[in-house]
Amino acid sequence: MKLDLAPAEIGKLTSARRALDFVKPDMKLGLGTGSTAAWLVKLLAYEMRVNGLKFDACATSSATTQLAESLGIKINNIDELGQLDLAIDGADEFDQNFNLIKGGGAALLQEKIVETAADQLVIITDASKQVKHLGAFALPIEIVKFGSETTQRLVEHVLAGQDVSGRFVTRRGGKSPVETDEGHYILDLQLDHIGNPRALSSALLNIAGVVETGLFLGMTNSIIMGDSNWRALVKSNDSLNWVETFYDISIFSDFLKGNKNEV
């Protein structure tokens, strides 16, 4: 049965397939959140059912937990697993230094907790997420509810002294704000261009009401880009070149057709 997918989805699925090559038996895995990570969860479920792959997993969001458990993957509490061997997740943007903006799915705090607890972080994405400078995608930050308007004002004040092109801050969801799994709010920072991600991250985290930012800096070991031709390019942070692999996904088609749940 042939998969009928849009080009962007083919790229996501291909990058997830390449990420399977990083997974070894009996690993402790951190499973990311979002549409690309959802493909990975489905492929892991296939490998578990068909090929007997054994692994322990924790998730970066309730949405990923629900998807994984619906496919028969047991999700553990991260505290039960301890140090993870590998975390695999998507990204909203990445630059040539492997710095990321993540959190478009409002799971950035749990993502960062899981991914800093992993020996390796592999990012699965497509070429549209590669940028020269971070900032085109709105930077999400997670803030506590108490004094949220005050925190937003302080964020705007901090941005005035940062090397960014835009300084527009909105609360995601407006009058009906988006709440994270931890009961926090998300602010979206429209910055256009971030000249110094580390300085920005430090300045934002110095605000008491800011819990975490969507800047994932110096954490990524490898990035995988999939495209609509079933080609995956992978590059590690110690390599100069992208390595190309083509995949035949047909063996997964029937399984994926029957499991359309999405994160």
Descriptive overview:
- The structure is a single chain.
- The chain is an alpha/beta fold and 263 residues long.
- The chain has two domains: 7-128 and 218-257, Rossmann fold (3-Layer(aba) Sandwich), CATH 3.40.50; 139-214, ACT domain (Alpha-Beta Plaits, 2-Layer Sandwich), CATH 3.30.70.260.
- 30% of the residues lie in helices and 23% in strands.
- The strands form three sheets. The chain has a seven-stranded mixed beta sheet, with helices on both faces.
Secondary structure: number of strands: 14
CATH architecture identity of the largest domain: 3-Layer(aba) Sandwich
Structural class: alpha/beta
Low-pLDDT residue intervals, each spanning 5 or more residues: none
Write a concise keyword list for the protein shown above.
single chain, 263 residues, alpha/beta, Rossmann fold, Alpha-Beta Plaits, 2 domains, 7-stranded mixed sheet, 4-stranded antiparallel sheet, 8 helices, 14 strands, globular
Quick description:
The protein is built from 8 helices and 14 strands. A hairpin with a 5-residue loop joins strand 4 and strand 5.
Structural topology:
Blueprint: H1 7-19, E1 27-31, H2 35-51, E2 55-59, H3 62-70, H4 78-81, E3 86-89, E4 93-94, E5 100-101, H5 108-116, E6 121-126, E7 139-143, H6 148-159, E8 168-171, E9 185-190, H7 197-205, E10 210-213, E11 215-216, E12 222-226, E13 231-236, E14 243-246, H8 253-257
Parallel strand pairs: 1-2, 1-3, 3-6, 6-12
Antiparallel strand pairs: 4-5, 5-11, 7-9, 7-10, 8-9, 12-13, 13-14
Helix pairs in contact: 1-2
